Amino acid sequence: MDTAGYAALSRQVGLRNEIRVVANNIANLATAGYRQEGIVFSEFVKDTGGNPSVSMSRGEVRNTSFAQGVLTQTGGRFDFAIEGDGFFLVETPSGERLTRAGGFSANAQGDLVNAEGHRVLDPGGAPVFIPPDATSVSVSADGTISADGQLVGQIGVFAPTDRADLIREGGVMFHAPGGFEPAEGATILHGFVEGSNVNAVGQMARMVEVQRAYELGQSFLDAEDKRIRDAVKALLR
After folding, report:
1. pTM of the full predicted structure?
2. Which residues contact 12 (CB under 8 A, 6 or more apart)?
3. Which residues 6+ apart lie within 8 Å of 11 measured at CB?
4. Reduced to 3 states, what is the DSSP secondary structure of residue 171?
5. What angle do CA 154, 156, 157 make, to 5 degrees?
6. CB count, 10 Å around CB of 101?
7. CA geometry: angle at 203 spanning 199 and 205, to 5°?
8. According to the model, what pLDDT value does residue 114 have?
9. What is the pLDDT of residue 221?
């Protein structure tokens, strides 16, 4: 394969990766707390040892959008949403993880847990406890929880030290290798859930664009392959 083929093939690989990312975004349109992803393309220049260098594209780095999703009022007793920047902190077998998915429930022990059963943590990193026999639960804007008029705890809201280092895990959870700290200026809404922040129209349009670009690139590779085959046949004659 000549340099043109290598350059076109690298573009095809990047477009294939983007198709997968866009398809995953569309599949998670209705997933609470899901953050839209995109692909960052970059140029990779290959030294060919004295010959003209080859410029190829790379589309492997994923970029996450942290724009606010739609806040939907559910009236759920243990449904919470964050308005502004910040994440809930949950305790998982792999360590503490950040998430924007606030559809929680209380387990038999009275611990507030997410859909996977992982305990939600307070600002000090301890599990949030709500008395199982409480008849009324209210939560203030700073996450302070009152059960039957008595203060029982607070839901923690955290921000990663370096958002660029966040690693997505499990769709709606993120690992923060650089650590995290209490978030400032965020408001907790009780009885609300934040939906996905995926732009449905934009992602559908992007899917069409990427598919057309991929088909065009494949047509070029097919034509280039035919050109090389014809040249080899002519030389063999």
Report:
1. 0.83
2. 214, 217, 218, 221
3. 56, 57, 217
4. coil
5. 140
6. 25
7. 125
8. 95
9. 75
Helix, strand or coil for residue 19? Answer: helix
Instruction: Please give the distance of CA 22 from its chain centroid, rounded to a whole number.
Output: 11
Alpha-carbon span 26 to 101, nearest angstrom: 17
Contact 130, 122 (CB under 8 A): no
Six-digit token string for 226: 């035919």
Which segments of 13-79 are extended strands (E)? 37-46, 54-64, 71-73
User: Whole-angstrom Cα distance, residue 94 to residue 173?
Assistant: 12
**CA-CA-CA-CA torsion for 175, 181, 186, 188, nearest 10 degrees?**
70
- Secondary structure of residue 92 in the 3-state scheme: strand
Residues in the chain: 237
Reported as a pLDDT band with limits 50, 70 and 90, residue 3 is low
Distance from chain centroid for Cα 223 = 38
In angstroms, the CA 49 to CA 100 distance is 50
Instruction: Give how far Cα 195 sits from Cα of 17, 70, 171, 182, 236, Å.
Output: 25, 5, 13, 23, 63
Q: For residues 49 and 96, which has the higher predicted lDDT (pLDDT)?
A: 96
d(CA 148, CA 221): 69
What amino acid occupies position 144? Answer: T
Cα–Cα dist 106/132, whole Å: 8
Instruction: Report the mean per-residue pLDDT for the chain.
Output: 88
